[in-house]
């Protein structure tokens, strides 16, 4: 007798139930294994999380340490830069001082050259003036020597004495000019130190115009005897006045 459709369906159901029940232990084992694996992986994950946390804390600690070191380096860099700027400023100041000293040295060298040039010019001028003075003195001595006889006449007949006070001054003393006092002395000092003759002093004092005229005529003529005659006449006019 053939099985009905319902029986076959029931039989398949029973077979599948049996198959399922047969799989239950295997499924339980798989579930248990999966649970163990999950627990193991969870433990690994937790361990990795702990390790990562430790590493993170270590990295944070290193970061803080590095930040502190960086701050210290920045402070050292700032201090080093400050010292460097101070040294650069000092070097710049020293450079300016050196340049100033070099400039002053050059100025002093220029002044020295100028002074040496002026000294040479003055030396040449002094030498030239000394030569002129010597020639003038020599000329005066020649004139005096030529006029000795005539001067002797003045001393003998006109009351004139000549005295050389020093190498630069000749003194002339006139007498017999004042009819009220023939011994009265009239003095004239002649400066012969320069290129031109100058009347240094008269006693009694003559008028400035008279002194200037005597000096001019002496320097123009270079004739000492003529000068003495003119000076005597000026003193004589002074007495008459």
TrEMBL record:
It is found in: Nucleus; Chromosome, Centromere, Kinetochore. Gene3D superfamilies: Chromosome segregation protein Spc25. Pfam families: Spindle_Spc25. GO terms for biological process: cell division; chromosome segregation. CDD domains: RWD_Spc25 (cd23784). Residues 56-125 form a coiled coil. Keywords: Cell cycle, Cell division, Centromere, Chromosome, Coiled coil, Kinetochore, Mitosis, Nucleus. Residues 166-236 form the Chromosome segregation protein Spc25 C-terminal domain. One of its GO terms (cellular component) is Ndc80 complex. Its main location: nucleus. It comes from the Eukaryota. Belongs to the SPC25 family. Acts as a component of the essential kinetochore-associated NDC80 complex, which is required for chromosome segregation and spindle checkpoint activity. PANTHER family: KINETOCHORE PROTEIN SPC25 (PTHR14281:SF0), KINETOCHORE PROTEIN SPC25-RELATED (PTHR14281). Component of the NDC80 complex, which consists of NDC80, NUF2, SPC24 and SPC25. This is Kinetochore protein SPC25. It comes from Candida viswanathii. The gene is SPC25_0.
């Amino acid at each position: 007798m053939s099985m009905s459709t319902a029986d076959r369906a029931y039989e398949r159901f029973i077979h599948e139930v049996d198959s399922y029940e047969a799989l239950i232990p295997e499924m339980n084992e798989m579930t248990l294994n999966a649970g163990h694996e999950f627990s193991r992986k969870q433990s690994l994950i937790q361990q990795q999380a702990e390790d990562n946390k430790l590493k993170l804390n270590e990295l944070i600690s290193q970061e803080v340490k590095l930040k502190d070191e960086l701050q210290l380096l920045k402070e050292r860099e700032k201090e080093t830069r400050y010292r460097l700027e101070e040294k650069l400023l000092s070097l710049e100041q020293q450079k300016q001082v050196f340049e100033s000293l070099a400039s002053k040295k050059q100025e002093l060298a220029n002044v020295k050259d100028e002074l040496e040039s002026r000294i040479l010019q003055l030396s040449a001028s002094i030498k030239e003036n000394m030569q002129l003075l010597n020639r003038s003195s020599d000329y005066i001595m020649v004139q005096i020597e030529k006029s000795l006889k005539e001067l002797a006449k003045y001393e003998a007949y006109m009351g004139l004495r000549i005295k050389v006070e020093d190498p630069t001054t000749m003194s002339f003393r006139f007498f017999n000019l004042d009819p009220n006092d023939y011994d009265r002395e009239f003095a004239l000092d002649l400066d012969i130190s320069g290129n031109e003759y100058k009347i240094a002093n008269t006693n009694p004092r003559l008028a400035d115009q008279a002194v200037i005229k005597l000096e001019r005529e002496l320097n123009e003529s270079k004739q000492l005897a003529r000068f003495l005659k003119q000076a005597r006449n000026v003193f004589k006019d002074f007495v008459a006045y």
